[in-house]
Amino acid sequence: MAKNKKPLQQTAVQDIEVDLLVIGSGTGMAAALTAHELGLSALVVEKTQYVGGSTARSGGAFWLPANKLLTGAAGDSRARAGDYLRAVVGDTAPADRSEAFLDSASATMDMLSRTTPMKFFWAEGYSDYHPELDGGSAVGRTCECKPFDLSVLGSELERLRPGLMEAGLPMPVTGADYKWMNLLTRKPAKAFPRILKRLATGVGGLLIGRRYVAGGQALAAGLYAGVLTAGIPVWTNTTLVRLVESGDRVTGAVVAQDGREVTVTARRGVVLATGGFDHDMTMRRKFQSENLVDDISLGADGNTGDGIRVGQDVGADIDLMDQSWWFPAVAPLPGKAPGVLLAERSLPGSFIVDQNGKRFINESQDYMSFGQRLLELERLGERVESMWLVFDQRYRNSYILAAELFPRMPLPASWFSAGIAHKAPDADGLARSVGLPVEAFRNTLEVFNDSARTGSDHEFLRGNSAYDRYYGDPTIGPNPNLRPLTDGPFYAVKVVLSDLGTCGGLRADERARVLREDRSVVNGLYAIGNTAANAFGHSYPGAGATIGQGLVFGYLAAHAAAES
Questions:
Q1: Integer CA distances (angstroms), 129 to 142, 179, 469, in order
Q2: Which DSSP letter does residue 519 get?
Q3: How confident is the model at residue 74 (pLDDT cuts 50, 70, 90)?
Q4: 300 and 49 in contact (C-beta within 8 Å)?
Q5: How far is CA 88 from the centre of its chain?
Q6: Structure confidence at residue 98 as a pLDDT band (50, 70, 90)
Q7: Within 10 A of 79 (CB to CB), how many other CB atoms are there?
Q8: pTM of the model as a whole
């Protein structure tokens, strides 16, 4: 067990030499674990005080088609998954990246099973994000880590990055649990057994000295436990200064800790896993949009584009810099993070309008496509300047909101005072309170209600996709995503465009090797995760595709380095 290992070296005391240097401690840990299993020495360097990167803040799902959990009950196959990626990615990314991902997805999961204490399960029913396309799966290809005991980390637990949402009760809630817990007032027979099971796991664990977590916390902790057991050192609070070259090859890096620079020579190569440029607003306004709200990404705070910049310094090309894992969220209070919106956009009795009081999108579609639509409208000169999630009292009485407000709980007074929330007894009063054109908003409500009564959204096709319906309310028919708003008072909550991280970066090949503009290889340099341009181009194939490709290309990078 990891807690029985001796403390690892955490300080950069002198110049050293290793086989593989991994910069970044999210899915970069998969590269380090693979390298260790292949007999290579590895070192992980992390900019911040915490291990885990954005993985630790995520939902922890990972999308690995045709792995051993899916080829049986899910009926998945490499061929079907290939059809799907060809359909969803198209020509927005090199096909050989998708093919390499699929070829090594199952092997990557096997490696994690061997090198970490994690156990995995299939999140049955969590549809691919575009299941209607050729090869798409309505039952999904997403997997998760079973609840994981943090106590195995021992004293190293203090170095694990905290999660995005901390539960008030000791309940290790998986993504699969969340779907039904969100429907606790609507489907209590489904929700309460899960709640009781997770409470029993959490509370029972505490009684015997165990602390169970789920989601990204479980996945990051499991990877870290594997790293600790393998004896791979992790230097935290250590920044990447520059790469070191010898001839046409990257041979290491200069890193800094406590004002002291240390050179790490990497005999087999350097893996850049530093995340994207989530919190560098200069880069974001240059490549994405000048209208993005200041620094509200949900990505780890150390993600400021370091790996991308140093890669460019040695001649690397970049691609897809306009892309992010966009994520609509509740507008933040001053100095706070935005509130998570996931199922809320799909649940019946709600819709989203712009500053003109009009709907402009299928609210239930996947979050990346949602953001892409907003930026498309901006390019067309139809910019959405503000967004409002509109719902009625029945909605508020039925569902969890922003992952923290249980049914019937009043909206926080701070939301109203900050202008994030508005409430009125009728639609006209709500429009006036928000500052929307009253007649336009009234018309939007009437048209939406008419569509909801028939169960068919003729404007934006909400509820047509299996993905839309996954987070719908199965007690509402004929469309689980649509219900007329009739029960006042009415509410409006301000929505902003956040993200889970950027996904444009260094151009890499099917083995995670970094490429120059002429497509020649920068020998000795690899890029994975959000430091590399998205292997799936402009698309998000399914829940956990960002973590999935980080894990797989970490595995591939280590194998390529071992063979170099």
A1: 11, 16, 11
A2: S
A3: confident
A4: no
A5: 18
A6: very high
A7: 11
A8: 0.95
Report how far apart the first and last C-alpha atoms of the chain are (Å, whole number): 32
Average of pLDDT values for 191-207? Answer: 93
Tell me, what DSSP letter sits at residue 472? S
pLDDT by residue (tens digit) across 356-368? Answer: 999 999 999 999 9
Q: Which residues of 326-357 are buried (b: 16+ CB within 10 A; e: fewer)?
A: bbbbbbbeeeebbbbbbbbbbbbbbbbbbebb
329: β partners: 340, 496
Residue 13: per-residue pLDDT: 65
- Helix pair 95-115, 545-563: axis angle to 10 deg: 90
Specify the DSSP element, H or E, that contains 556.
Answer: helix 545-563
- Which of 397, 401, 371 is CA-nearest to residue 384? 371
pLDDT in tens, 51-62: 999 999 999 999
Structure confidence at residue 1 as a pLDDT band (50, 70, 90) = very low
Q: Report the sign of the C-alpha dihedral through residues 316, 320, 325, 331, in that order.
A: positive
Amino acid at 107: A
Q: Find where tokens 């029993």 sit.
A: 200
Q: Which residue has the tokens 């997770």?
A: 198
Q: Amino acid identity, residue 391?
A: F
DSSP state of 499: E
**Rounded Cα–Cα distance for residues 521 and 525 (Å):** 8
Instruction: Please state, in angstroms and as integers, the Cα–Cα distance from residue 85 to each residue in 9, 101, 305, 330, 379, following that order.
Output: 42, 10, 27, 31, 27
Residue 286, token pair as written in the block? 């240059």
268-298 burial, b at 16+ Cβ within 10 Å, e below that, comes to bbbbbbbbbbbbbbebbeebbbeebeeebbb
Mean pLDDT of the chain: 95
**Which candidate, 378, 360, 312, places its Cα nearest to that of 517?**
312
CA–CA gap between residue 162 and residue 562 (Å, rounded): 33
Q: What is the mean pLDDT of residues 376-392?
A: 97
**Which of helix, strand or coil describes residue 339?**
strand
> Side chain identity at 196, as an amino acid letter?
L
The Cα angle at residue 313 between residues 307 and 318, in degrees rounded to 5: 65
**What is the distance between the alpha carbons of residues 376 and 397, in angstroms, rounded to a whole number?**
35
Q: Please, are residues 427 and 445 in contact by the beta-carbon 8 Å criterion?
A: yes
Task: Tell me how far CA of residue 81 lies from CA of 62, 140, 271, in angstroms.
Answer: 15, 11, 27
Quickly count: other Cβ atoms within 10 Å of residue 208's Cβ: 8
